[in-house]
Design a protein that fits this description.
alpha/beta; two-stranded antiparallel sheet
Length: 317
């Protein structure tokens, strides 16, 4: 069970993404997924207050409400490390002190809990003085509403500044960072954020670990994703270099009798400082391939093969 940075939180090496809860997975199905994930030993659930405001008829907070209703039904709150995020909810936009305080309390209410284990600044808010944000997060820790703080989608310079402010003022230090990182999106994480994570002891919790499903191998032609919920996300990966990564995954998966998703996640789990990639399942049928990544050990040659082929994927502009 890897530890999240310098915290005392140890977690299953696969985080269950809550972005689909209340979106492509209704409440009943979401509860089934959460039941199956925890029954298999999983204990790390990642969500955000904005999930899934983008869906027609939603206002944001749907995922947290679904997780909260599952906590109430299952009684498993104390068995799960819950991570959520602030800055993007339509009613709590940005990272001003008052916004952070109000958003955290709203998340706690939706989740039906008295504390958030890991609380992320979801996206940087350059219009708010960074010290104000850092102090707001620290205040939540001092009040016992948040156990540990974390950052997501921050540039290295801004993350370093956050850490400097925290150290200079004896405020809560972030213990984790959540970057966009997978086999077809290795930059800017590897050259920019990874050295910072190593230096500061930050646990890395990558999102889009399966590239919106592209690395599962289910999108081999453009017709495979045309008109689907994730068409806009997947189309950017659909290049010759991207398909070469999928082919390499397929060869290694065949050798292990595993799914492509399992191999893609196992590669991420083998990278330095990565604690637990985030992957979501909109139904229980999708879970076994994700969970199997915790058991799959790739050989050094297999890891190198994947690193080599994925290094040829063009870095996004």
């Amino acid at each position: 069970m890897p530890r999240i940075g310098t915290s005392d939180l140890t977690v299953f090496p696969l985080a269950l993404g809550g972005n689909v809860f209340g979106w492509t997975a209704d409440e009943q199905t979401s509860h089934q997924v959460l039941d199956a994930y925890t029954a298999a030993g999983g204990d790390f659930v990642d969500t955000a207050d904005v999930y899934s405001a983008w869906a027609p008829g939603n206002e944001g907070g749907e995922s947290e409400r679904v997780i909260g209703s599952w906590f109430a039904k299952s009684g498993k709150r104390d068995d799960v490390v819950i991570a959520t995020k602030v800055s993007q909810h339509p009613q709590f936009s940005g990272l001003g002190a008052d916004t952070v305080a109000a958003a955290a309390r709203a998340s706690l209410e939706r989740l039906g809990t008295d504390r958030i284990d890991l609380y992320y600044a979801h996206f940087d808010d350059e219009e708010t003085p960074l010290e104000e944000t850092v102090r707001a997060f620290d205040q939540l820790v001092r009040e016992g509403l948040v156990r540990y703080t974390a950052i997501s989608n921050y540039s290295r310079a801004r993350a370093e500044e956050w850490i400097r402010i925290a150290k200079d003022n004896d405020l809560a230090l972030p213990v984790a960072i959540q970057p966009h990182y997978n086999l077809v999106t290795r930059e800017p994480y590897e050259s920019d954020i990874a050295p910072l994570a190593a230096t500061e002891g930050l646990g890395v919790v990558p999102y889009f670990s399966l590239a919106a499903g592209f690395l599962t191998g289910k999108y081999r032609t453009k017709d495979d994703f045309a008109g689907k919920d994730r068409e806009g996300q997947v189309s950017g990966y659909f290049t010759d270099a991207g398909l070469a990564v999928v082919n390499a995954l397929a060869g290694i998966a065949d050798a292990h009798g595993a799914e492509l998703a399992t191999v893609a996640l196992a590669w991420l789990q083998a990278q330095p400082d990565v604690v637990a990639p985030i992957a979501s399942a909109r139904n229980t049928d999708q879970l076994p391939a994700l969970l199997a990544s915790a058991e799959l050990e790739l050989t050094a040659d297999e890891l190198q093969t994947l690193s080599d082929v994925s290094s040829k994927v063009p870095t996004a502009a």
